[in-house]
Amino acid sequence: MKELITTVCLLFCLAGCGLLGDRREQRPEPPPADPNPKMVLSAQGNLGLHQTARTSLLEDNEHLRDLLTKALADKRKAELLLADAEAQGVRLSAEVSADKDAIESLSEQISALKEQLDQVSAEAEVLTKERKTLAEMYAIEKRQRLAFEKELLEREIAERTHDQGEP
């Protein structure tokens, strides 16, 4: 991203100086009408220098265009990656929200089941106490019945022995 900004700034600077994008051929100034040999050599030297500078500027221009093209491609790629990341972030946020809702629902169900378990445990405790009480009452009743039957048998035996003893 830093390269892109640097490249764009450099392109604007070059465009401002008139060095970028001007593909018109620049013609060298015609030699002066007075053909002085020193002036002619100087003009020809300047022509070679201008040609070299022009070639160098065109190469730099092409290089900068390549860099700009690469930077734009990288920018598009980065924008696509950013959009994908944002979409994934939204999707993951929705999943997290759904998971939070599910956790909240399960927590409420757990609380309700704990309350139900407490009620069932209390009922089981009451039933256990009642069963113990009934078992004790049954044992007492059985002892009383056995004591009553024993007493009846003893009376019957006493009556038979008493009846047999009186002939």
| Class based on secondary structure composition and strand pairing | mainly alpha
Question: Low-confidence parts lasting 5 or more residues at pLDDT below 50?
Answer: none
User: How large is the share of residues in beta strands?
Assistant: under 5%
Please tally the β strands and state the result: 0
Average pLDDT score: 83
Radius of gyration, CA atoms, in whole angstroms: 56 Å
> In which range does the helix fraction lie?
over 70%
Terminal-residue CA separation: 135 Å
Helix-strand blueprint:
Blueprint: H1 2-17, H2 37-164
Helix pairs in contact: 1-2
Description:
The protein has a domain at 2-21 and 40-114. The chain has two helices and no strands. The protein has helices at residues 2-17, 37-164. It is rod-shaped, with a radius of gyration of 56 Å. Helix 1 runs antiparallel to helix 2. 0% of the residues are buried. The longest helix is centred in the middle third of the chain and has 128 residues, at 37-164. The protein is mainly alpha-helical and 167 residues long. The N and C termini lie far apart (135 Å).
